[in-house]
Specification:
Elements: E1 5-12, H1 19-27, E2 45-50, E3 54-60, H2 70-84, E4 88-94, H3 101-113, E5 117-122, H4 129-142, E6 147-150, H5 159-169, H6 187-202, E7 211-221, E8 226-235, H7 238-245, H8 250-267, E9 270-279, H9 287-292
Parallel strand pairs: 1-3, 1-4, 4-5, 5-6, 8-9
Antiparallel strand pairs: 2-3, 7-8
Helix pairs in contact: 6-8
Length: 295
């Protein structure tokens, strides 16, 4: 066996290109929430993959996008700081016959960092192989020196090839984290993210983007193998509160049930989950509130 390698790998790209799905696939556990909606990931998420020959510390980052609102600007700042942590960068672009303008802008930004870079062409299960050839040529022309690996984060296609390529680029190093850990997130943070994911999946239009989740209480009853979680969902308008609760509290109950079932699976214990909804007007443009939610 060769020398052991370890290091930080930043997974970067525009919004909705499949970064979180790819990180979850590479880690082998769900560490990042996934929804079909853009801008689901708001903060830096660390996933850890420990193999016999290497430990890969994967940093999932918010999507890079044109940010006009303060919340979005903070997310892009978080993304840029997290990307700069990577000793290796995996730039995720979408499969097609040419580079999406947003993908091109991301690659230009990443090239300026001068780090070893892999361009992962994601969603190859959606396009015929021949269609990728002009895209690969375009990336080779514009970004010489970058490794190119076509993958499908959803189906797992070619993920082994991506893993081998990442490992080759990592520095020789002992493991940097305990081998039995797969994320640095606390259970409290995981609960906040899972509840937010269920809101994104359940709600329509702009409501998910103006919500945040704060776990107020996280208590463990070891004897009964029970975790009691009290969470507050913050919205910035009274009308959103009504829509989130739904007629007779039905919508909030459905969100709570979906979150509780997944948390029980992740935490390996029964969960008693209580969620309330609170209006904090215009929190998405209040720097103090944004900081409170880790942005």
């Amino acid at each position: 066996m060769g020398e052991h390698r370890a290091g930080f790998v930043a997974v970067a790209g525009r919004t909705n290109v499949g970064k979180s799905t790819l990180v979850n696939r590479l880690v082998g556990h769900k560490v990042a929430i996934v929804t079909p909606r853009p801008q689901t990931t708001r903060r830096r998420i660390l996933g850890i993959r420990s193999d016999a020959d290497a430990q890969i510390l994967l940093i999932d980052t918010p999507g890079l996008h044109e940010a006009k609102k303060q919340l979005n600007q903070r997310m892009v700042q978080v993304a840029r700081r997290a990307i700069a942590e990577g000793e290796v960068i995996v730039a995720v672009v979408e499969a097609g016959d040419h580079l999406n303008p947003g993908d091109r802008a991301v690659l230009v930004d990443i090239r300026a960092l001068g780090r070893p870079t892999i361009v992962a062409i994601n969603k190859v299960d959606r396009v015929p192989r021949a269609q990728l050839l002009p895209l690969i040529e375009e990336i080779n022309r514009g970004f010489p020196g970058a490794e190119i690996v076509p993958v499908s984060a959803l189906s797992g296609e070619n993920i082994d090839e991506l893993l081998l390529t990442v490992k080759r680029m990592l520095p020789v190093s002992p493991a940097l984290m305990p081998p039995d850990e797969y994320t640095d997130q606390s259970e409290r943070m995981i609960a906040e993210e899972i509840i937010r994911e269920k809101i994104f999946l359940k709600m329509r239009q702009e409501i998910p983007f103006s919500t945040a989740v704060r776990v107020e209480k996280f208590e463990e009853d070891a004897e009964r193998k029970l975790k009691r979680i009290s969470a507050t969902v913050v919205v910035d308008r009274e009308s959103h509160k009504g829509m989130l609760i739904g007629a007779g509290g039905r919508t909030l109950k459905e969100i709570g049930t979906a979150a509780r079932l997944e948390l029980e699976e992740i935490l390996g214990a029964r969960v008693f989950l209580e969620i309330i909804v609170k209006v904090e007007r215009d929190w998405t443009s209040d720097p103090r509130k944004l900081a409170e939610f880790g942005l």
